Amino acid sequence: MKKRNLISTLVMLGAVGTVLAGCGSNNASSNGSSDASDHSGKITAVGSTALQPLVEKAAGNFQKDNKKIDITVQGGGSGQGLSQVQDGAVAIGNSDIFAESKDGVDAKKLVDHKVAVVGMAPVVNKDAGVDNVSMSQLKDIFTGKITNWKELGGKDEKITVVNRAQGSGTRATFEDAVLKGATAVKSQEQDSNGTVQKIVSSTPGAISYLAFSYLNDQVKPLSIDKVKPTDANVETNKWKIWSYEHMYTNGKAKNATADFIKYMDSESVQKDLVKKMGYISIHNMKVEKDSKGAVTDK
Amino acid sequence: MKETQNKLLSKSKATREDYLGRSICYFCIGLIIALVVCILYFITTRGIATFTQNHVSVWGFLTGQNWNPGGVDSHGKPEVGALPMIVTSFSVTVLAALVATPFALGMAIFMSEIAGSKGTKFLQPVIELLVGIPSVVYGFIGLSVVVPIIRKVFGGTGFGILAGTIVLFVMVLPTITSLSVDSLKAVPMSYRQASLALGANRWQTIYKVILRTAAPGLLTAVIFGMARAFGEALAVQMVIGNAVLMPHGLVSPASTLTSKLTTEVGNTVMGTLPNNALWSLALILLLMSLFFNLVVRFIARKGSIKK
Fold it and tell me: Where exactly are the transmembrane stretches of this chain (chain B) (predicted)?
């Protein structure tokens, strides 16, 4: 029995050691990739879960042609992405928001690469009986001034607001576009598009917001001021609730990292993959938004 | 002669093995202790940074009801009030333990006193199976089954303390049951024999002798269950609703310490107030689990069975 305990402890220690060693070598080689001349090595991209599926897919395709480059894509949230790329722990930090708008991040050190655009739409449970609201009505719902769907001509049903986790990129984008500085009503918070979709589809009177790629026939997207949430409306900024997906590098991207980011901006990714994954191509945008939210024609 | 002397004076193979074994053990223990110390140090320094660096008052942190670490209130002070989460964490924990204990006790008594070895052989795997199910599965079942049922019966959204309690009840049940079985089995057989010899029937023996003798062990089992409930994050997060509101009922959305940690930690940047505030929540969790451990030790010392 004692011997068995000892052996299992040793096995455990060995496993821990291997994991630690793995982490160590991982970091070392991702740092080392910057001075490799033949553009091989490891790239680690960490951050936004909204951008993760696109980067994963693109990384898979990219590695088919570049066998020497090994790309690891991880989630963790925009905050993680920005802080880790700033510390130099990873090569690429994925983020839904501008680095300038995150406290504790020195945006001057980071270089922004916008790779896609995501539109977001308010969604309601199907039996709310409302399919269009004005921007100010939407604001009143999320600040708690309107509490029943019948005030908007819908059913006599209490409104249940489902918000996103504080500090999440999706919430920041929505609050910038809709609340414009007002404080949201205290309400439920969920941390993923999938959960929000499930809750809104099953809770009568629920309202929340989702990225376009998560819209389906289980939930009802709302039009705002009669503008429908479509890709074409985002491209012209007629639909106001959208944000860039950023890939940040610490200083100018080099070697393998530069190649990969260039690939993300290439026609094959932007024309095909981006659309297929439910994002909007950065090439199609007819307007530009800066970190303060000011929109100008391209 | 010389050979024998050498043999006697030099270390034998067995002794060397002994040394080797001992040094491996010391090394492992040292590593684990270092790990624990590191974790304690890390959480504590990060956790108190909210109060030392960001100058939030401890009292304000423990009694405030507004949680918005990214913004400031009307006085320009950051809003980090953890009271709603502390209250919810405790309510969920206590309720889950209250609901689970009778069931767990019943099962433990059945397994150790009534069923005999056949029943135990059947029930043991059932309980172990409950332990083995990952918490995300419990959460998913809670989200797809428990929440809709609560919504139908009580109205509202279905998310809240009640849903959390029901999910946690299933999760702490095996912990409490198996620890209770152990402590019931530790009651010496002579007690049972003496009780039966005095003419007590089985129920009287269980109620008046076995449960009384095993009481400290049973209490420990319940507290271990509570510690597990207090620390559970994922399953609770999926059904509690994650709204930082003072719970004003069992079916209003609320948020526990752990669920707040899991939903927000990815969106904060190391070293900023929102991040430090989360570490402070983690510090509260750590202190609570230390507290649970101390209580368990205290009970074990006071009430161990004297043979």
Answer: 20-43, 82-105, 126-150, 156-181, 209-230, 277-300
